[in-house]
Amino acid sequence: MLNRRHIFKTGVAALAAVFMAASVPAYAGTGRVRLRMANAGFIVGIGGGSGTLTFQGRTYPLRIGGISLGTIGASGGTLVGRALNIHQPTDIVGTFSAVGAGIAIAGGARVMRMQNSNGVILELQGMQAGFEANAGLSGFSLSM
C-alpha cells in the first residue's frame, strides 16, 4: 500500500519535470540571406528589392522595402550574410534598423549589422554600385 507522502512526492517531482521542460529555451538557428537592393534619394532615401532566406534546408522568398534619412545619391547592389537568432522562418519578417554612416562611390564594400523586434540579427556584406552618402538612421523592412 502506498502512503500519501510517497504519492505527494511523486506528484511534485512530475510537475517539476513538466515545468522545467517547458521553460527550456528553444534553440535558435542561423540562416543564410541574400538581398538585392536599390536605393535613391535626396535627404530622405527610398529603396526596395528582393531576396531569399535559406533556413534548415529550405529557401524562402523575401521582399524588401526601406527608408533612410540623410541620404544623397543612388545605388544598388547585392548583400549576403547570416541571419542569427531564428527559431522559425517568419522571425525574419519586420523592420531592421541600425545607426551608422557610410559612403560608396562608383562601387564599394558595404557591411551592415541590423536587428529587428523579433531579435533576429542580420550580418550582411557586399558590393554597392553607384554613389550614395548617408549619415544617420537607416533601415528596411522584410516581408515574405
Quick structural overview:
Helix content is 14%, strand content 69%. It has 1 helix and 5 strands, in the order αβββββ. Strands 1, 2, 3, 4 and 5 form a 5-stranded antiparallel beta sheet that branches.
Characterization of the model:
The chain is mainly beta and 144 residues long. The chain has a single domain (29-143), classed as Beta Barrel (Lipocalin), CATH 2.40.128. It has one helix and five strands; from the N terminus they run αβββββ. Mean pLDDT is 73; it is low at 99-106.
Measure the end-to-end span: 60 Å
CATH topology title: Lipocalin
Main sheet attributes: strand count, strand direction, barrel closure: 5 strands, antiparallel
The total count of strands amounts to 5
- Any guess at the CATH architecture? Beta Barrel
Helix content: 10-25%
Broad structural category: mainly beta
Estimate the strand proportion.
over 45%
What's the CATH class, please?
Mainly Beta
Give descriptors for this structure:
single chain, 144 residues, mainly beta, Lipocalin, 1 helix, 14% helix, 69% strand
